Amino acid sequence: MPVPARLGVFRVLCLFAVFEAVCLLDTGMLFPRESSSREVKELNGRWDFRADKSPNRNQGFEKAWYKSRLAETGPVIDMPGPASYNDITQDPTLRDFIGWVWYEREVVVPARWIADEGTRVVLRVGSAHYYSVVWVNGVKVTEHNGGHLPFEAEIGSLIRKDPTQPCRITIAVNNTLTLDTLPPGNIQHMDDHTKYPDGFFVQNIYFDFFNYAGIHRSVLLYTTPKAYVDDITVVTDFLDNTGLVYYKVSVQGAATATLKATLMDKNGRCVASSSEPSGVLKVVDVNLWWPYLMHENPAYLYSMEVRLMATDSRSTYEDVYTLPVGIRTVNVTSTQFLINNKPFYFHGVNKHEDSDIRGKGFDWPLIVKDFNLLKWLGANSFRTSHYPYAEEILQMCDRHGIVVIDECPGVGIKDIRSFGNSSLTHHLAVMDELVRRDKNHASVVMWSVANEPAAEMPPADFYFKTLIKHTKALDPSRPVTFITDSNYARDRGAPYVDVICVNSYFSWYHDPGHLEVIPIQLKTQFENWYGKYQKPIIQSEYGADAVAGFHSDPPVMFSEEYQKAVLQSYHNVLDQKRKQYVIGELIWNFADFMTVQGITRVVGNKKGIFTRERQPKAAAFILKERYWRLANETGRLPVWTKYPCSF
Ligand code: GCB
User: Fold this and answer.
1) 352, 407, 541: which to mutate for ligand 1, most atoms within 8 A of CB?
2) Would the N or C end of the chain have less CB density within 10 A of its end CB?
C-alpha cells in the first residue's frame, strides 16, 4: 500500500532532514569491514592486566604505568578480552572492584601498513565500561566517556615514528558510576570505624543488573586509505513496487573525490547506481525487508557498495565500503505500529548482555545460541534493555528479521541531581553516538531514550522533552519511546513519545502472590494510558521470578508454576487489548541474569524464561506456543519453518 501523496512529500522532507541532522556529528563510526581497500586485525585474546588497588585508585596515573610495559611497574595477571574482568578470577575484591583497571598488549603491525604513508591505521574499541583512556607506546591517543558504544583513534603517524618498536597498547578503564554517568550511580564512603574497615566505600546503583566492567567488545586495528568513506547514512522508503534508498556519503581526507554508489541484490546483481555523494537509488521490483514470521522471505538485504576515488599530489586513493541495506518503512498511528504499511505486533523479549564467566563480554557462541532460541520461541523482536548491544548483534537482527527497540543506557535515573545540565548534556551526547552507530540497521525500528526514570520529579519534564525532541531531530525516520512503569501519574515523557511502553509486575512487586489481581489491574493500566494519550501501547516488561526446578501446585511465588500462571493471566488481557491499541508484549526476561547481591535476588534475577545457561523453564513452552500462534494469525511463516529442526 503506497503512502498517501501528502504524507509521501512530508516523509521525503523528513528523510532529508535526517542527513542534515546526523551531519552535525563530527565523524562517522562505520562498522569496520574488510574490503579490497581495508584490512582488519582483531586484538582479541590474552591481555596483561592489573587493577589499581591503591587507596585513591590513582597510582597508575601518578606512576605513569602507561609509559613502560605494565609488567615492569608491578605484577600482572592474564585477562581475556573481550570479557568482563569480574568473574574471571577467584578474587572477590576483583569481582566487586571499583576504580581503574589497566590492560596492555603488544601488537605486531604489518610492515606494509607502516611503510605506506597513504594508509590510515585506526585503533578501535567496540566498548569498554565505563570511562577509558588509551595510550599507544606511552602516548595518549584518546579517551571516552561511556560504557556501551565504540570509540577510535588514528594511530598511523605514531607507529611510524619508530617502526622498529612494537606497538604497545595500554587501556585504562574505570567502572565508577556517578550522578552524571549513564547509567547513574554514586559512591558512598563509610567512615564509621566501629562499623566499617578503613577506606570502606560502596558503589550505589539504581538498576537491576551487575555492573560488569572491562573491555566488553573487540579491540581492533583497521586500515583505510588516506582519503576514505567516513560515513554513510541510508533511509529507505518505497512507492508501489519501487524501493527508494535515500543516501548520503561523507568523505574525509580529500578536498575533491569522485564516488560511485552501487546497490546490489542478494545475487550480487547491480539494481541501481549513482555517482553522486547523496541522492536516491531506485529499485524496481523491490524485495522489502520484512520481520521474521511476517513474510515467507524475511530479512532481505541488499548491499550498497560505495567506491571512492581521490587524488592528491602524491598518489591516487581508492576506498571501498559495503553496507548491508534493508528496504523498509516504519510508521505509527494512534493504534498501530506499521512496518511496510502493515500492522506489526511485537511478540518478543527483553534481553541482557550477560552470561557466566564472560559477564558482558562479547561471545559469538552465546549470540548464535540466543538467536536460535529466539527463533525457536517464535519471537519476532527484542528491546536492548538497558543499553546498546554489540553491533554484531544488530547485524544478526538485520540478517534474521528480528525487530529491535534500541535502548540507550538511561536506566536508573532516580536521583534528582541526575536531571541536571551535565547529566542531560551527557545523555544527549550518548544519543548522538547511538544514532550515529545504529542508524543504518533495518532491524532498528524505534529508539528508547530511558527506562523507568523517576519521572515524577519536577525537572524530568524539561529533561525528557529535550531528550526526545533531540532524538527525533537526529532521526526523524524512526519513532521514539521511553519506558515507563505502570503508574500513569508518572508520565512526564509520555506526551512527547510516539509509542507508550509500560512495565508492570502485578502479583509480584504489587500484591505479591495474588494472581487474581492481574486481569483487573492490567486492564485498568491499559485503559488509563490509552484514555489519556491515544497512543499505541507496548507491554514492555512483565514477568515473575522462577528458580528453575522449584515446583508448587497450587502455584507459589518463585516456582515455575507461578511464573507460568502470571504469563497466562497477562496473555488473556493482552489478547483483548491487542485488538484495540496494544501493539506488543515483551517478556521480562529472556534469560536469568546476574545482579548485585541483595535480599530480593537469589544469585541474580530469575525472571528468565531460560536459565542463565539457556535451558528452558516451563514458561518458555507457554510463550513458544503463544508466539507461534500469534505468528500464524498475523503473519506468513517462512517456507523452512515446515522443518522446525532447521534452527
Ligand atoms: C524493572 C526493570 C528491570 C528489572 C525488572 C525486575 O522494571 O526495568 O531492569 O530487572 O523490573 O525484575 O525487577
Assistant:
1) 541
2) N
Ligand 1 atom closest to Cα of residue 451: 8
| 178 vs 160: CA distance, rounded Å | 38
Determine whether the shortest distance from the Cβ of 541 to ligand 1 is under 6 A.
yes
- Taking the C-alpha atoms of residue 633 and residue 627, their distance in angstroms, rounded to an integer, is 10
- Cα(318) to ligand 1 centroid in Å equals 49
Pocket test for ligand 1, best of 205, 207, 208, 485 (most atoms within 8 A of CB): 208
- Give the residue-averaged pLDDT of 219-228: 98
Residue entry with cell 512530508: 10
**Locus of grid cell 512495565:** 503
Report whether residue 407 contacts ligand 1, using a CB cutoff of 6 Å.
no
User: Is the CB of residue 141 less than 8 Å from the CB of residue 135?
Assistant: yes
**Does any ligand 1 atom lie closer than 6 A to the CB of residue 545?**
no
Please compute the mean of the pLDDT values over residues 250-267 and round it to a whole number.
96
Here the cell at position 30 is 562505520
> Is any ligand 1 atom within 6 A of the Cβ of residue 607?
yes
Pairing of strands 444-451, 480-485: parallel
Question: What is the spatial distance between Cα 49 and Cα 128, in angstroms, rounded to a whole number?
Answer: 14
The pLDDT of residue 493 is 73
| Amino acid type, 484 | T
Nearest CA to ligand 1 atom 5: 208
Degrees (nearest 5) of the Cα angle 449, 207, 559? 115
Contact 352, 294 (CB under 8 A): no
User: Is ligand 1 within 6 A of the CB of residue 592?
Assistant: no
Q: Among 210, 213, 209, 192, which Cα is nearest to 201's?
A: 192
72 is catalytic: no
Cα 208 to middle of ligand 1, angstroms: 6
283 and 272 in contact (C-beta within 8 Å)?
A: yes
Which atom of ligand 1 lies at the shortest distance from residue 595's CA?
Answer: 10
| Residue 381 clears pLDDT 70, i.e. is over it | yes
Q: Which atom of ligand 1 is nearest to the CA of 485?
A: 7
Cell of 132: 577509558
503 lines ligand 1 (CB under 6 A): yes
C-alpha cell at 159: 607507529
Determine the distance separating the centroid of ligand 1 and the alpha carbon of 408, expressed in angstroms.
Answer: 16
pLDDT bracket for residue 25 (50, 70, 90): low
Q: Cβ(470)–Cβ(426) under 8 Å?
A: no
Q: Which three cell numbers stand for residue 368?
A: 548464535
Closest CA to 42 of 224, 219, 215: 219
Q: Sorting pLDDT into bands at 50, 70 and 90, what band is 455? A: confident
Give 188's contacts (C-beta < 8 A, 6+ positions apart).
201, 202, 204
Q: Is 492 in the pocket of ligand 1 (CB under 6 A)?
A: no
* Spacing, Cα 415 to ligand 1 middle (Å): 17
- Cα separation, 332 vs 478, in Å, equals 9
| Active-site residue (options: 104, 433, 452, 541) | 452
The cell numbers describing 299, all together, are 530479512
**Of 81, 80, 59, the residue nearest 70 (C-alpha):** 59
- Angstrom CA distances, 631 to 250, 297, 337, 348, 492, stand at 40, 14, 16, 11, 34
Question: Coil, helix or strand for 187?
Answer: strand
| Helix segments in 28-163, DSSP class H | 59-62, 92-95, 111-115, 156-161
